[in-house]
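Recap for those who missed Tuesday's class. We walked through two folding examples back to back. For each one, the amino acid string is listed first and its predicted structure tokens come directly after. Nothing is annotated here on purpose, so try labeling regions yourself before you check the end of the notes.
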Amino acid sequence: MEYFPAPLEKLVEQFARLPGIGGKSAQRLAFHVLDLPMEEAQEFADAIVAAKKSVTLCPVCQNLTEGGLCPICASPKRDGSVICVVADSRDVIAMERAREFNGHYHVLHGVLSPMNHVGPDDLHIKSLLDRVAAGGIEEVIMATNPDTEGEATALYIARLLKPFGVKVTRLAYGIPVGGHLEFADDATLMRALAGRQEL
């Protein structure tokens, strides 16, 4: 038995398809949209359609852009000899927030995950290899997440890059700032010890 009119049910279903949105949150969002004035609801719908139509992938780094090169690839101030490989466009934002990296990026749009049927051909690995093969790249930093899939992806790409003679590095792991040793897991402690630096 449906509790809401069919269009409202459909709206709830669409919101529920979003990642991290459960049934109750989907209902809350749907009711919020219904409460919006018609102009605001139209603006919301137009923003979704406009983003879907105009946001594309940068032909160089595969990051999201509005046609043509992304601002990072287009910037002459960035160091083109270093590429930071990330799994997702959100990772680019995280790296940029730190304001420490001044090179270019390469977005894979996922990680290797045999359980989820994601293989090398499903990721933007070939375009990374093409960039390195074109020359001018001195270092590739693997910045995938330190989980099983991220590690497997980093190792796989590092193996593919070996013949090109570029330096391949991995982001350091360790205890987070403000963290406590007693709460760190064994793998984190092991990597923190292995990556220790002289003061």
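Example two. Treat it independently of the first, because the proteins are unrelated.
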Amino acid sequence: MIVFNLNCSDCAFSFEGWFKNTKDYNNQIKKGLLSCPACNSIQIKKGLMAPNVAKKSNSKISKRNKSIASNVKKLKKIIEKEFDYVGDKFTEEAKKIKYGEVKERAIYGEASFEQTKELMDEEIDVLPLPFSTKKTN
């Protein structure tokens, strides 16, 4: 597992990305699978970072990082199993649920930064997920 500091070229938002290896990162960038959690842009670049050289004193940190990655994978499996994927219709579906136009249910999908702000303004709770929600079949 490798962690990169990533930056959005469009909105300058900085975030971390976890990848199996550098090749995995490059493949995801090439296929347009990485998007900014703030504005949903796919203009993502690696930021400056110091190499992570493991030391004996870092063994607890390494175990914690593996635990976090494991928990993110578990969360993703739960969400994909228990929630309805609504893709780019997330904003519309969240509003329909809020205003009783459709049956209440747990959903996930994509929303732009502006759409997320709009939902929050209407007091609709949203949370960013620590993984890509885009379906690739």
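Answers for example two:
Residues 72-125 form one domain.
The mean pLDDT is 85.
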